[in-house]
Amino acid sequence: MGKNTKRKHRRKQQLGNPQDERVHEGPSIVAKLRHNDPKMRHAALAALVHISSKMHPTTLQAVRDQLMDRTHTECASMAAACLSNFLAFSLEKDDFHALTAGWVLLLVERLRDCYQQIESSNNGATILSSTQLYLLWELAERCWTCLVHLVENNPLAMERLLRSASLQQDVTQLLVSFLHLKCSVDHQTLVDALHTMATRCLHSMWDDNGDLIASWAVTPTVYQSLELLISFLRDTASTTARLHVIGAWCSFWSWTQQNSFQWGTLQPSIVLHDCLTILRQTLVWDAPARALQIAHLVTLYRTHQKEEADEVLEKQIVSDQQKKKEPAKLIARRLKEKRKQDENRPKDTTTEIPTDSAMQEEPSLDWESALDQWLSSIRPLQLALEITANLSIGISTTSDDATEDGDELMIDSHTSMNAELRQLLLDTSIPDCIVELMRHLYQPLWSDASTQDAAVAIRSTIGDLQSKVAVCVGHCVTSLQDDHRSWNVDAVALWNHLTQASQAVADENATESLFASMVMALQSAKGNAILHSFELKDVEFLLHQLKLTKFTVGARDLICMLGIILCSSFERDGFRYHTSEVNETVAQTLIDMGTSAAERHSAVILSETFRVLMDVYGNDDCHPRIFDSLNMLGYFQKYVPALKQCIHLSRDASPDEIRQWKETASNASRFIQYKKGYGN
């Protein structure tokens, strides 16, 4: 009785702390990790790989110690895999940022050791077997993966890099050295993976991080490193690695446009042209091949779903049978009756093919491997679109802050370099490639019934591509306009394709990006040409989309487009579609949207409806009868206080959004006073 009571007490204590999600492996696993026998340590690490996303601090310390074991590379490589898995999941929480920030030093030290051993073997100073070299390459690749996780997801690790110029130089020097380290053909696949991770680390370090670039730009080896990066960009066969180098180079080039840097013998314009050429070659979509690939994925996914349903049904039957505890005699009698019923039933002409358990597992494995191949094949295109979006939005006019006389030289230089980038983008036909890519990606594939049940992973990937290409189109149509040379695009045809593309979006992000791109098109220099071609069906299209959309950001952009159309159409004589009926329909729709938004405490929609209505009816000659018949003034008087309350309740909004909404509320209050005075 005493032992049983103690066991119950222990179980209560274990269940009493459910918030601790870490796996408490206990002292046994730590003892195995510190065992003298390397086989025992390797076995413990191999077991930890599957649960390494949640490790106890003592176990984590033991694994980290194994990473630095220079006597057994196999154990160190497995330890790096455990740490990589841990970082991939744990850095989502701030609790582990301080714990893992210091790992940068350990990883750099381990990478330096790997490089020295491989280089020594290549020079013939030491003799290493093919297996030993493979383990060193594997260890280095996993260490670079850990560094990528720290750079991208741990701000404290980035702070350490910023504070230490020597550490920055070590990371960059090691990275460039690994990119030009020779390997055998047997190890090429692993080395390509290492190149991808190492260049991704550089890309993430320099992306929107001018302080880190500025610190590195004054190091003694900066020119040598840049020359080696350019050489790797032109010689390597790995597309993803080249794209990461392009992203890093463009970040560095953009930094040099606002900061003084002597290029020496380097020719940045030629390198930038090479980068854009590689981008253009990547921004392609083989429609027939991709359609077959997606159809194959959908077929495998359906088979996978059937397998999962069968497994759930099987478990349910077993569970029900165990609950019944049916005697053997009753089971035999029931099966005998079922057999007689089957014999009396007419036989089906189709024959069933027996499948064993191994054959039943194949579709699931095929689905997982096919999905991995799909995601890998899409990744270069995603990366190329991200880089293109960053480049195209970077083309801007002079900064508003740089208006002092002393900054004139910087302004002229910056404008000239922007013109150079604009010229290179047009010369390489990247904007035209983007439009062609959008035409392929926004095909009505996802409205087809055969792909409606596609896996979330497939639809989200297509949605991500659609979202990125729509952003690129918006940036190009906004930025690539200049007095000397502009993007020669048929704006009306582009607008028509954007409206048609709304029928083929894969997810919410794609919808929002598409509507945002349409807003940018209307607000650009090409907007007048688009507005001159408008007809009634275009207004009806926007109203229809506004009723269908369930997304706040998309609804805001649709309301904005309606405002642009109505304001521009009223200022033109003889504009056929802005009749009193259209004005009343649009106004009533916006009032209904604003009323619903007030009930849902949505400051985004309510503020946008006020802004558009003020723009439209700020002109006292714009359908005053409709303004009075819809009691527009009463609507403002009732819901302006509601907007202020919505702003007060918006906890997750950014400071810029809050400032914009408050400005709209203030303008709406003045609008009420103005309309009251006008009426009197």
Helix fraction?
over 70%
Kindly name the structural category: mainly alpha
Distance between termini?
92 Å
What's the number of domains? 4
Contiguous runs where pLDDT drops below 50 for at least 5 residues: 5-26, 348-361, 396-417
What's the count of strands?
0
**Mean of residue pLDDT values:** 82
Overall morphology: globular
Q: Report on the biggest sheet.
A: none
The total of helices stands at 31
Give the structure's gist in a few sentences.
This protein has 680 residues and is mainly alpha-helical. It contains 31 helices and no strands.
Explained architecture:
The protein is mostly helical. The chain has four domains: 21-90, Alpha Horseshoe (Leucine-rich Repeat Variant), CATH 1.25.10; 100-265, no CATH class; 267-319 and 362-398 and 410-533, no CATH class; 537-680, Serine Threonine Protein Phosphatase 5, Tetratricopeptide repeat (Alpha Horseshoe), CATH 1.25.40. It is 74% helix and 0% strand. It has 31 helices and no strands. The protein has helices spanning 2-15, 27-33, 38-48, 57-67, 73-90, 97-100, 103-123, 130-153, 155-163, 165-179, 188-206, 210-216, 222-235, 239-256, 268-282, 287-324, 328-344, 357-393, 408-427, 430-441, 456-479, 491-501, 508-523, 527-532, 536-548, 552-570, 580-599, 603-617, 624-629, 632-649, 655-679. Helix 16 packs across helix 18 and helix 21 packs parallel to helix 23. Residues 5-26, 348-361 and 396-417 have low confidence and may be disordered.
